Amino acid sequence: MRDWIEDNLLGKVEKPLRYQGNEMNAVHKDWDSTTLRMVFAFPDVYEIGMSHLGLSILYHQANEEPDCLMERVFAPWVDMEGMMRENNIPLFSLESCRPVKDFHGMAFTLQYEMSYSNILNMLDLAGIPLRWWERSDDDPLIFMGGPCAYNPEPLADFADVILIGEGEEMNLEFYQVWADHLRAHGGKMNKKELLDEVVNIPGVYVPRFYDVTYDEAGRVTAVTPNHPDAPRTIVKRFLKHMDNAFFPEKPIVPYLDVIHDRAMLEVQRGCTRGCRFCQAGMLYRPVREKTVGELEEQARNILCNTGHNDLSLTSLSTSDYTSVDILLRSLIAEMAPRNISVSLPSLRVDNFSMNLANEMQKLKKTGLTFAPEAGTQRLRDVINKGVLEANLESVARMAFSSGWSKIKLYFMMGLPTETDEDLDGIAALAYKVIQIGDEIRRENGGKGPSPQVTVSVSGFVPKPFTPFEFEPQVRGEELRRRQRYLRDKIKHKRVTYHYHDSQVSYIEAIFAKGDRRLGQVLYRAWEKGCKFDGWGEYFYMDWWMEAFEECGLDPEFYAYRQIPYDEVLPWDHISCGVRKDYLIREHQKAMRAETTIDCRTGQCHACGACQDLDVKLDLKGGWLRVNTNAVPQD
Amino acid sequence: MSHLDLMHTWERVIRRSQLPLGFSQGFNPHPKMNFASACAVGTTSDGEYMDIELTRDMPLEEVKEALDRAMPPAFEVTQMKVVEGKVPSLMSIMERASYRLRLEFVDDVTQQQLDAAMEEFFKREEITVFRYKKNSKDKKPVNIRPGVFEIRMEAEGKYAVLHILVQTGNDFNVRPEEVAYGLMSAGMPAVLNVVRIHRNGLYLLDKKGNLITPLDVV
Q1: Based on the domain organization, do B155 and B129 belong to the same domain?
Q2: Does the beta-carbon distance from B16 to A22 stay under 8 Å?
Q3: Residues B111, B54: one domain?
Q4: pLDDT score at A362
Q5: Which stretches of chain B drop beneath a pLDDT of 50?
Q6: What is the pLDDT, as a whole number, of residue A365?
Q7: Domain extent at residue A29
Q8: What pLDDT, on a 0 to 100 scale, did the predictor assign at position A629?
Q9: A389-407 burial: b if 16+ Cβ within 10 Å, else e
């Protein structure tokens, strides 16, 4: 099959390397000598999927198990899909170029809601019936995990199994039960029996083992197990410590220029800054750091095995890693002579981070990006983003003085309680930064490029398991008015204003907080041709709206409703450790514009993670310094 | 694979091999590697050449071993030689490229049809093909005839294998698929699909006009 595809299809598609595999460090295991054969399916194109650390961890971990094999498949781009359908080529894996249907299992990662239509499309391209009840024992078992799996309800019709939480330990337990099952059944699956077995693994959620009831208004009234072994609440799995956690030291090196074309090293998991819009900050609690020694060792090995010239220290907020300065200095000292740069993916708006940035980029002065998220102090307090205007000013001053000329500022629009005054604040901040840049340039005698600011604004999407899960999304027409309002406020030729599409974020909001009934909508939308919804050019709002209408469901019910605290949420039977009463407390504080300090300072707010789960904050460098936000006196 | 992807791949191979790769000076140090010629996306090749500069002398066998250990599947170093002192860049000395293409026709073709097209092709002084201008939808006409030196074709039902020797280098470059288009303008039946393009090798000319490789020069 590979030869035929290479001869007849790959010559005609954009970026044929997306479909070719055979990269350095890709794992090619012997098909016949493994018991359990799975394919990791990333519901987006190769370049995005291959930039995803989770894929790398789970792929290499599965392949280290002697009786497991895991290959990869990505969503073929529209050109390739057309040719595959025309020539009856089923979705095939990259490693062995086998039809996906030949595997025992297909693992989808749920990274963003707007990739759901691609999941359906990939199943269809593979020739696998979409809904679980249409599939036979000969079809692969469809399992899913990742951040969006915490509210997996819109995918309940399509998944056999959902894995809740961090995969490193849970997946191995799941594979073991599955492999034993295959051995006991001569290599075949009896899915009913298999599900009866895996439902006993903590973190495993089998959607069909639960019945959902609704009231006449369409609100969920109860989610009740209908299987004797199905737990009432599925609690996320997590690693107690990140020390000695599996981490791939021989990751695949793509031939193609992928989005993050660099070595990635996870320094810690979790973030407790407590930004109230941020789902990841709630899902991955508490913070667990790796030791400097282990990270140095892993960095060395990864660079040696990949040949990358850039090492990125990743996590939700790497500048919070308690030993970040020690780690950075030691890595830079070791890597700089070999012309390897070390970078942090995101920076906080404070001087400490700014010093780190200077440290990292002694040579290259490309753009710097900061995320104040909101334009006024009041709104930043509402969302608990601990950034003061003075922070931003002093950071901008440092950035321009150290040679940067382009600063990008990220904001969200449509945050709870937002008014036009907050939008004025966005424009004012951008102007302030330009003004600081101009002053510094004048002091330097007008040398170098003129300062430039890019204001990038995305629409706020309320997410489950955040204090804002109760909040409605701002209506589309009002959001568009606010976009225009801000656009008219920003009239400076060196301030660029970018806005992300509000229609996509409407569908995203619906699916983020959706219930099981959305499965029909998703199916209808896919039938109409929805796919690659995250890629503006393939997003068709009309198709989505038609799908809602045909299914008799009101999209506004999901996105635009203020939800009372005592309502049953579609995801209430799933727990990420953070308690609902903590989210309610945080929501109330938000409405009073009161902030909550990071618990890494030593002040516990009893969110539930360390109280209800057998895990504690694991900080290698002691409590986080609280004064990092202070403005220098000079 | 695009030329840029290929360059990145080689940089990583050399970094993995732990060889003491030389870097350019300046704010953005570049690895000192030079390629003879860029290969278009989708083209396979048996004959590519590159120079790499190391910061210290090393026995060739040691360099080869280190590279072999670090090479991804489907890449192979076949031969190496030491180049001393300053030499002109590989790109600037290349003159000829030979390719093998597989053509799929709309209908079955006969050897006579192909032979007639080849004869007509060489009879003419001008064979015009159209190239897209950079970053534009406009096309400009290009006469490829002076840059085509040899054509051989073998008919196989709906397919034909096409062997060509064309000019390459900084001054003028003929792309392999352009020869197929040129042949169509010289009366060859319509091609449905260029199935596979393979580069056999890149050459220089010696004083007598014979094809030699860069390794013959060193």
Answers
A1: yes
A2: no
A3: no
A4: 54
A5: none
A6: 59
A7: 2-235
A8: 47
A9: bebbbbbbbbbbebebbbb
Question: What proportion of chain B, given as a percentage, has pLDDT over 90?
Answer: 61
**Residue B204 sits in the same domain as residue B121:** yes
B166 forms beta bridges with B97, B148
Rounded to 5°, the CA angle A93-A96-A102 comes to 60
- Within its chain, how far is the Cα of A96 from the centroid? 28
CB contact under 8 A, A11 and B23: no
Tell me which residue in A7, A256, A306 faces B5 most closely, judged by beta carbons. Answer: A256
DSSP 8-state code for residue A497: E
**pLDDT given for residue A626 in this prediction:** 60
Please indicate, yes or no, whether residues A184 and A87 belong to a single structural domain of this protein.
yes
Cβ neighbours of B196 in A, within 8 Å: 6-7, 11
* Three-class secondary structure assignment of chain B: CCHHHHHHHHHHHHHHHCCCECECCCCCCCECEEECCCCCCCEEECCCCEEECECCCCCHHHHHHHHHHHCCCCCCCCCCCCCCCCCCCHHHHCCEEEEEEEEEECCCCCHHHHHHHHHHHHHCCCCEEEEECCCCCCEEEEECHHHEEEEEEEEECCEEEEEEEEECCCCCCCCHHHHHHHHHHCCCCCEEEEEEEEEEEEEEECCCCCEECHHHHC
Packing angle of the helix pair A502-512, A476-489 (nearest 10 deg): 140
Categorise residue A17: left if φ over 0, alpha if ψ from -120 to 50, beta otherwise. Answer: alpha
Where is A610: in which H helix or E strand?
helix A609-612
| Reported ipTM | 0.84
Extract the tokens encoding A256.
Answer: 């193609």
Q: How many helices (H) and strands (E) does chain A have?
A: 21, 19
Contact A304 B18 (CB under 8 A): yes
Closest CA to A457 of A438, A490, A483, A421: A483
What letter does residue A11 receive in the DSSP assignment?
A: G
Residue A324 near residue A287 (C-beta atoms within 8 A): no
Of A16, A253, A305, the CB nearest to B42: A16
Whether A92 and A54 have beta carbons less than 8 Å apart is answered as no
Same domain, B128 and B108: yes
Between β-strands A310-314 and A263-266, what pairing exists: parallel, antiparallel or unpaired?
A: parallel
Q: What pLDDT shows up at residue A631?
A: 39
CATH of residue A56's domain is 3.40.50.280
Give the whole-angstrom CA distance, residue A162 versus residue A108: 9
CA angle A38, A40, A43 (to 5 degrees): 140
The pLDDT value given to residue A458 = 94
Tell me if A346 sits within 8 A of A314, measured CB to CB. no
- Coil, helix or strand for A196? helix
Report chain A (634 residues): mean pLDDT per 10 consecutive residues.
Answer: 87 90 95 97 97 96 98 98 96 97 98 97 98 98 98 98 97 98 97 98 98 97 98 98 95 89 94 96 97 97 95 91 91 91 78 72 67 95 90 89 89 97 97 95 89 95 98 96 96 93 92 98 98 93 98 97 97 97 98 96 95 95 66 36
| CA–CA dist A275, A296 (Å, integer) | 30
Which candidate from A15, A256, A307 shows the least CB-CB separation from B16? A307
Neighbours of A484 (CB within 10 A): 11
Domain tally, chain A: 2
Mean pLDDT estimate for chain B: 90
Domain encompassing residue B70: 3-92
